[in-house]
Amino acid sequence: xxxxxxxxxxxxxxxxxxxxxxxxxxxxxxxxxxxxxxxxxxxxxxxxxxxxxxxxxxxxxxxxxxxxxxxxxxxxxxxxxxxxxxxxxxxxxxxxxxxxxxxxxxxxxxxxxxxxxxxxxxxxxxxxxxxxxxxxxxxxxxxxxxxxxxxxxxxxxxxxxxxxxxxxxxxxxxxxxxxxxx
Amino acid sequence: xxxxxxxxxxxxxxxxxxxxxxxxxxxxxxxxxxxxxxxxxxxxxxxxxxxxxxxxxxxxxxxxxxxxxxxxxxxxxxxxxxxxxxxxxxxxxxxxxxxxxxxxxxxxxxxxxxxxxxxxxxxxxx
Lengths: 182, 126
Fold this sequence. Notes:
The structure holds two protein chains of two kinds.
Chain A: E1 2-5, E2 8-15, H1 18-26, E3 32-35, E4 44-52, E5 60-66, E6 74-78, E7 83-88, E8 91-96, E9 101-107, E10 112-118, E11 123-128, E12 131-136, E13 141-146, E14 150-156, E15 159-164, E16 170-173
Parallel strand pairs in A: 3-5
Antiparallel strand pairs in A: 1-2, 2-4, 4-5, 6-7, 7-8, 8-9, 10-11, 11-12, 12-13, 14-15, 15-16
Chain B: H1 2-33, H2 41-56, H3 63-78, E1 83-86, E2 92-100, E3 103-112, E4 115-122
Antiparallel strand pairs in B: 1-2, 2-3, 3-4
Helix pairs in contact in B: 1-3
C-alpha cells in the first residue's frame, strides 16, 4: 500500500518476523529507525518505507515492533511540519522526514488506540485504552486524563466527551483538559 | 469494651462492602476479557483478542470460568509480592500466571488503588 505525503511516497508493509523487518530496514540507503524494540512480547512487525519522489529510488525505513493485543499501529501525516506521527504499543513517536530523525517521543500510560487530529486548533488527541493525551502538532504535551476503560470519545466544538466502562461520562475542555459541565 | 466491639463490627462491615464493590467492578470487567463489549472498534478488537488468548488455553466463557477468573484476579490483588512496576500515573501493575486446561498465560492486572483498570494477557508466542 502506498500513501503520498508531500513529495514523499510511503509504503506500508506487515512482516511476520523481526528478522524480515530488520532485513528490509537494512536495505534503506537513507537510514532506518526501529521503534518499539522494548515491546514485550513482540508479536507483529511493520515497516513504513519513505521514498522522496524528488531523488530517485532512495528509502528511509521506519520499523515498528508491536505487542499486538489485536491492535495495529497508526500513522498520522503532518505535511506542513514534515512529520509522521506513529502510534503503537504505549507510545507515540514523531519522525521528521526531512532530517530523518526522531523529533519527539511520548510515553503513554495505556495502549495506543488512535489519533484524533484537530487541525484548526493545532492539537492532536491521542485516544488510548484508558487515557486521552493532548499534544500540539509539534509534539508538546498539553494534558492527559484517564480514569477507566474508554468506550467512546467524541469531539464537539471545544468539548471532548468520554464514555467509560465503569465510570460516569466525562466532558473535558480540549485546550486545557479541565473538566467542564455538560 | 462494647464501643470497641462496635468499632470492630463497623470496620468489618466497611471491609465487606469494599470487597463486594471491588468484586462487582471486576465482574463487569470480565465481559471485557471475554470479548463482550460494545462501542469503540479498538476496544472491541482488543477484547476479542483477549478472548482468543483465553480460549487458546482452554478458558471459555462459562459461569465456572468467570468464577475462576474472579478468584484469580482477587488473589492477584491481595498478593503483595507480585508488583512488577508502578506507572507514571500511580497505577500499579501486578503479574500472575493464569492456568488453563491447555496451557498458561501471563496475566498483568493494572490497579488504581483497589480498582481494577485493565488487563494484559501475554503468551510465549502465537
